Amino acid sequence: MPVVLEDRPTASVREEVIDQLIMNYSHGKLSRAAFERRLDDAMNSEDNVEIAKLSEDLELIVDEKYENSKQRDFGVSYSPQPGKEHDKLVNVFGCNNRSGRWTVAKELQSFSLFGTSTLDFSEAEFTHPDVTYKVLCLFGGDTLYVPENVKVVSNVFCIFGSVDNAAPSIPAANSPTITIEGHVIFGSIDIKLKQTIKEKFVAFADNLKSMFG
Questions:
Q1: In sequence order, what DSSP letters do the residues of 3-58 get, joined into one string?
Q2: Which listed residue, 54, 75, 85, 177, has the most CB atoms within 10 A of its CB?
Q3: How does DSSP classify residue 62?
């Protein structure tokens, strides 16, 4: 006998309903306005019955093709090849930018003197589940863009500096952890979300809709 709806984990019920909303919107069964309204309700509610009602009138259920697309878009990318143990970024009156598909070493070392680093982990390939970002920032600034399913831990000592973590994580089972260590002196480290989870759901749904015409 299956577990009654009220006793199931709310996160699991929410995920199933959101999958159905995306599936039906992408196949033209829901209007854009209805999809976004129901998506907001599903994300904001903590009531299993209330969440489940949002998809009870929808016919289409997720299939293998949908699951594969979701895994590709939402899963963390791990490189099939072993990566470097260490990688260095040196910014003296200059800047280093990493974005797109790049390989993340187990340990990143960043030195910024009147310089900046911008690291975008949104499409990066991880080689280790635990990444250490060691930083020495003097009169400079580092910016990290992370997806919501990557956990970020800050153990930075600041002297007339700051660390602003605006990227609360929702770690998945296999998601990596980025631990930031080091010193910031007359500088700053900003940790930001590249996309909110809602924006990612909507973008994923729009991509599927364009595929299905």
A1: PPGGGS-HHHHHHHHHHHHHHHHHTTSS-HHHHHHHHHHHHH---HHHHHHTTTT-
A2: 54
A3: -
Fill in the amino acid letter for 127. Answer: T
202 closest CA partner among 7, 63, 38:
38
CA distances from 172 to 98, 129, 148, 169 (A): 24, 12, 9, 9
User: How does DSSP classify residue 195?
Assistant: S
Hey, how many other C-beta atoms are within 10 angstroms of the C-beta on 59?
Answer: 9
pTM (whole model) above 0.85:
no
Q: Is 145:193 a contact under the CB 8 Å cutoff?
A: yes
Q: Which residues of the chain have pLDDT under 70?
A: 1, 75, 167-173, 213
CA of residue 117 relative to chain centroid, distance: 20
C-beta separation of 30 from 21 below 8 A: yes
107 contacts: CB under 8 Å, gap ≥ 6: 85, 86, 87, 131, 132, 133, 134
CA distance linking residue 141 with residue 120, whole number of Å: 14
Going from N- to C-terminal start, the domains of the chain cover 5-75+197-212, 77-193
Give SS3 for 171.
Answer: coil
Closest CA to 13 of 40, 38, 50, 64: 50
Which of 166, 212, 169, 206 is closest to 189 using CA atoms? Answer: 166
Q: How far apart, in Å, do the first and last CA atoms of the chain sit?
A: 39
Instruction: Express each pLDDT in 120-169 by its tens digit.
Output: 998 888 988 899 999 999 999 999 998 877 888 899 999 998 888 876 55
